[in-house]
Amino acid sequence: MYAFSRAVNSMHSEDIKQLMKQASGKNLISFAGGMPNNDLFPVKQIDEIYNSLPEDLKKLCFQYGPTSGYPPLIKSLKSYLKEKGLPVDENKILITTGSIQAISIVTREFVNEGDIILTENPSFVGALSVFETAGAKIHSIPIDKDGIDIKALKSKIETLDRKPKFLYVTPNYHNPAGIMYTPERKKELLEVLSGTGIILLEDDAYSDLYFNEDEKHLTKPMKSFGVKEVEIIYTGSFSKILGPGFRLGFMLSSEEIFEKAETVKQAMDACTSNFMQILGNEFLAQHKLKPYLEYLRSEYSERKNLLQKHLQAYMPKEITWNEPKGGFYIWLKLPPHIKSTDIFKETVTKGVVFVTGRTFDPASKKDDRLRLSFSNMPKEQIEKGVIILSETIKRAIENSKITLS
Amino acid sequence: MYAFSRAVNSMHSEDIKQLMKQASGKNLISFAGGMPNNDLFPVKQIDEIYNSLPEDLKKLCFQYGPTSGYPPLIKSLKSYLKEKGLPVDENKILITTGSIQAISIVTREFVNEGDIILTENPSFVGALSVFETAGAKIHSIPIDKDGIDIKALKSKIETLDRKPKFLYVTPNYHNPAGIMYTPERKKELLEVLSGTGIILLEDDAYSDLYFNEDEKHLTKPMKSFGVKEVEIIYTGSFSKILGPGFRLGFMLSSEEIFEKAETVKQAMDACTSNFMQILGNEFLAQHKLKPYLEYLRSEYSERKNLLQKHLQAYMPKEITWNEPKGGFYIWLKLPPHIKSTDIFKETVTKGVVFVTGRTFDPASKKDDRLRLSFSNMPKEQIEKGVIILSETIKRAIENSKITLS
User: Fold this and answer.
1) How far apart are CA B10 and CA B13, in angstroms?
2) Which of A3, A143, A168, A225 has its CB 3.0 to 4.6 Å from that of B64, i.e. a possible disulfide?
């Protein structure tokens, strides 16, 4: 039912659509949705902000705004991005209607039907849906626990007969893989792209959601590395730090890319809601973000710990995963002969859902993984969900042994 | 500075861009902006709605929603559109991020680069900007005081070597022309399109803003006429009945067109803000729209009357216009040898701005008109603005006589 079920649907066959329909019923234990938890939204803070807006500002909420964004929000974002080390003064910020619109704008700006886009495999399904709708040819590069496979990336670029328009990556607390690029891997990635003319589209929706203050430095965006030989477009979102319902995102790019992006955005929706931008800006400008993020980190970290604990307790030894250090996701690896989609078909009848591995493969094939999201999960349901899931997987492993023997 | 200045800019030369920059200063008397008046927004009503939302609904404001729209809003819109006689049960509603997004989606769905789109001349600049960004070839058909020129439309369709993808029209309280299609003209238009396979894109942002209850029946949409031989996509907006800052629009179309439109929207911004949809829905569901529209109509009607009165008092007899019966605009006609852009260059230095005629011509040429918007105008400024404008025009007429003689 939610935003990306459509993308999931469009990439899958009738059986999954049916299962999705079943899964939209009541009383489900859902590890599926990649959205924040309803009970964690800063409702009280936004109430306070809204009710103390001066009359003039409140009226402005109802009005059109500039296509590039509400100027005070752009100013607040500058400070926010500067703290991440990003070169805000030499670049321009465009406010977008969610970061998916930023990805859509960049695609519209650079990609014609049949053009090549490079992605990670697995990759964010929302972005894949944008690229597919644009008629792009997606070539995907595997990732490991430290980031994109550099050798595979290099060899892909060398063997392609045309230059890809851009490489799309989500290096921090990857969706769905839950991994974090190491600083070395980020550097190597930039080295491979240097001089190729391939743009890097660096999507960074989760970097504020680290679980351990010591690891904050690992979230440093590649756009802050000062590498002049790679054109980097950096995108971000308020969806994980305020709420997806605001539909607020942004992109930071060179002035040249910004100028055309502004025209493309103009033709998409004229401007992003002033109402949402004004509330979002006050949230930043009144310094409500930092304490709220501290609260969010501890809440999500607690959920991750619970899921990690129960997975360790109940999962058969054949199942492996990396414990995430931030973000929303655990990315379970199944034995090669077990398919995520088959597991799903079983668990959904028992009231447990997740997102199947092949959803995140641009070719909709690789199906030996499953994504568990702990973000939108009542804590007390985690154990029961894991028990049902692990029993189903155990049975599948048993059955496959019988079949194989 | 506002949303469509970009579109205006992109269609015009450096000199107009400069003038626009000058015009964004303070203390201007502006007949330019096609936006509602800040002082007329339903701020108090939205305050009440927001502060009485149940906790669960408030949390939902922050969350993702379905790509097609927030289901209770779709339900409320059904009632609203049913009252206009629209066939809501045989069609599907897609909520969009402003009606400009609906136009953008339809364009994306049907138009490839080089494809032909038919428009009125003059036409809404925001739509023209969408069509141009898509690389469409725009062929425009003149309109008169009763609607599109039927003979010209017919002959255009006959002489084109390819079938246009759609015809885009704004039949009710036209922007910029301020006119209203007669029921006969609407019928003739449908007859011409019947059997051609050309889709009709009927954009209806202003139909609730009639000045006289007796004329309400004239706003009847063509999609309500029951003509099966023409595929009609109907678009509408909350921008004029609630506020552009909400970025809420919608399209009503056949299920087939809806399905693809939903996928296109998914790739544009995933979903429209739940926050804005929930507030918008409560505004409709709590029956706050009708009394608010009554208030709006009387306010805009009063402004129109003032502008009409002062134009009659001060304009030289060579200047003609049709008194609008609703909407936001008066469309002045200059003598053929006087250019709207030249008048603008004069008045802007005296602190009065409007939008030049050629802005609304897809070919950016026809410049014998100027658009005066009375919607966003403090009432007490109207007379002074008209005096400055009419004196400038008088002088231009005098000068042209001297030059001609």
Assistant:
1) 8
2) A3
